[in-house]
Automatic annotation (TrEMBL):
Family annotation (InterPro entries): Epimerase_deHydtase (IPR001509), NAD(P)-bd_dom_sf (IPR036291)
Domain NAD-dependent epimerase/dehydratase: start-end pairs: 5-162
One Pfam family per UniProt: Epimerase
Key words, A-Z: NAD, Oxidoreductase
Taxonomic lineage of the native organism: Bacteria, Pseudomonadati, Pseudomonadota, Alphaproteobacteria, Rhodobacterales
UniProt keyword Oxidoreductase, yes or no: yes
UniProt GO molecular function: oxidoreductase activity
Protein name as it appears in the record: Uronate dehydrogenase
Domain of life assignment: Bacteria
UniProt KW tRNA processing keyword: no
Family statement: Belongs to the NAD(P)-dependent epimerase/dehydratase family.
Length: 278
């Protein structure tokens, strides 16, 4: 592959994807709205760009084979705050990918597209959308956008419904954890699978308590290796009784399922910023 583009390269998950993606192409173009992203890896260059600008996306995607789209406002907030980067940004990436002749978009979707399902209901990749927030709604929009661009324009896309890619420090994460190594494998398989069409796959490790079913996405070749059960004894010892009437405990979306629309979901989570440093 000659050129890959990674949006959201300044983010925590992007920091773990940059180096392995350079091994899959002659040139990795990393992009974000930050002024820089630190020391670049061999074969990587950085281009500042705004997802809300179609002109920026057209410029950055020129000559690319695929785009790995991880850029977004990564929390719940007022609709107006998400409109530019998450809604319009998704359209700009797909439209620029179409106009520039890319083959595939690999998109960081989220469990929050289906976050209002009860957690004791194991859901597969074909359940209808049940977003828990405006943030989740933006993921639904991008999934439907990808479906439409595949049906109408032949642009492939793989939508990674990531559950929780962060350190395991709460009971929910015993089922929802996606390790960084499994994240990398998931993105790699989404890129190198021969044919994807429009596909959805859950971003989750091989957890004993995983509440989702990836059987219908097995053709992608994603076989997670890590298991959050190694953290269970310590996490459960530190966790008090959970309220079974609280959507934050009972729904797939966790704290995002219990907050009011427009209010931060991350504020109720202890997400540790362990971004990879270059």
């Amino acid at each position: 592959m000659k050129k890959l583009v990674l949006t959201g390269a300044a983010g925590r998950l992007g920091s773990y994807l940059r180096e392995p993606l350079t091994q899959m192409c002659e040139e990795l173009v990393s992009t974000d709205i930050a002024e820089d992203i630190g020391t670049l890896y061999p074969g990587e260059r950085y281009e500042k760009g705004d997802l809300a600008s179609l002109d920026d996306m057209m410029r950055i995607l020129e000559g690319a084979d695929m785009v790995v789209h991880f850029g977004a406002f990564v929390d719940e907030g007022p609709f107006e705050q998400l409109l530019g980067p998450n809604f319009i940004g998704a359209y700009n990436v797909w439209e620029a990918a179409h106009q520039r002749g890319l083959r595939r978009v690999v998109y960081a979707s989220s469990i929050h597209a289906v976050g209002m399902y009860p957690k004791n209901e194991c859901i597969d990749t074909e359940v209808r959308h049940r977003p828990d927030t405006f943030y989740g709604l933006a993921k639904c929009f991008a999934e439907d956008l990808g479906s439409m661009y595949w049906d109408k324009r032949g642009l492939e896309s793989v939508h990674l419904r990531i559950l929780s890619c962060a350190q395991v420090n709460n009971a929910r994460a015993l089922g929802s954890w996606l390790s960084y190594d499994d994240l990398i494998q998931l993105v790699q398989r989404s890129i190198d699978t021969p044919v994807s069409g429009f596909s959805i796959v859950y971003g989750v490790s091989n957890n004993d308590r995983a509440p989702v079913d990836n059987a219908k996405a097995s053709f992608l070749g994603y076989r997670p290796k890590d298991n959050a059960e190694q953290f269970a004894e310590q996490v459960l010892a530190e966790t008090g009784p959970l309220d079974n009437q609280d959507p934050g405990h009972m729904c797939h979306g966790g704290p995002f399922a219990s907050v009011d629309l427009g209010q931060s979901g991350l504020a109720g989570m202890n997400v540790i910023d362990d971004a990879k440093k270059t």
